[in-house]
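sorry for the late reply, my laptop died twice this morning and i had to redo everyting from scratch. anyway the thing you sent over, i finally got around to it. pasting the sequence first so we're on the same page, its 365 residues, then the predicted structure underneath. double check i copied it right bc i was rushing
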Amino acid sequence: MFDCSPTSPGRRILRPGIVFRSAGSSLRTNCECTAPRGEAAPAHGARAVFGTHGCGTVRYWNSPQAATRQAVIGSRPVERTQSTAYLPGMSETFDSLGRQPLHHRIHYRYDVTRCDVIGDVHGCYDELAELFVRLGHEDLLAPDVPGARPGEKPRVVFVGDIVDRGDRIVEALSLVHRLCVRGHALTVLGNHDDRFVRWLRGRPVEIQHGLGETVEQFEAIEPARRERWRDELLEFMGVLPWSVHLDGGRLIVAHAAWHAELHNERSGDRLRAYTMYGPTTGQQTPEGYPERIDWAPHFQGPELVVFGHQVYDAPYWHDYAIGIDTGCVFGGALTALRYPSMEIVSIPSRGARWLRRGGKADYRG
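ok and here's the structure:
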């Protein structure tokens, strides 16, 4: 079984400018199952790379047919069999709200060629505000910031998980909400954001993993304002995309993971689960979290994927995938990747608000 714990020899944390390509897949198996649950057998020539196979074994089909894409990375054109902006049949397939075409949430495209991608915020508003100043976006911190002018593009993209665990969740979420609806920012939906949306809708949700902090701070808002904002948040967060494709397809931002075959994936459930949670072994860590698979070394592009979700001590660099969740809420740092310059800008945490083993930390601001 592949171990993605911080002490695992298989986990490599690399500094900017350093790339690493795995010499071989430690995730391949000799499982005799013919196909994953509910799916046809793989095409001829497919090989298992990663994912959860029907029998519970770590396996994912990576076929030659899925390797063709329509994108231009640098000066190297690559053909794709179907457009990322529209997949046949998806125009009549809607999400669980029945309001948003599914292909919009899966393959949201925006004509942005320059932006700052920011890692998991988790309610650390003070560090987020400091990071905005460092990046030159201090004007966006104003509560009355005007909407983007015609032709003005979003400057900031978030990898999701704005809420939970932190000490200023309402302020952080309010900032992200305001900037997105006024055209200055984009965000994908993180798994913590998704759970908060389900709570807002009144669905049964376990209050764990920091959701209690979000609920407590949200319910402290003056009742009339809180209810107005609840409606606005449901309108905003209820249709956030699971991945954002920028710069003509050269850059993909997803919360947890991406895979080449997702370009042609038609199942909203599989896409949502994979981009929001990433591949897992089906086992749990001693802390009770799903044991994750280190997918980034096996992703062969040609797009660059920037993701969060998995906490690293420093930005996690590979040829075509960069993880930028450096655990601000745990006492690490809040990190941004400046695209396309690939510069890393990090703000050290002012203190841990949440313990990595679970539970609230003794943070005094």
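The CA atoms of residues 71 and 78 lie 5 Å apart.
thats about all i looked at so far, will dig more tmrw
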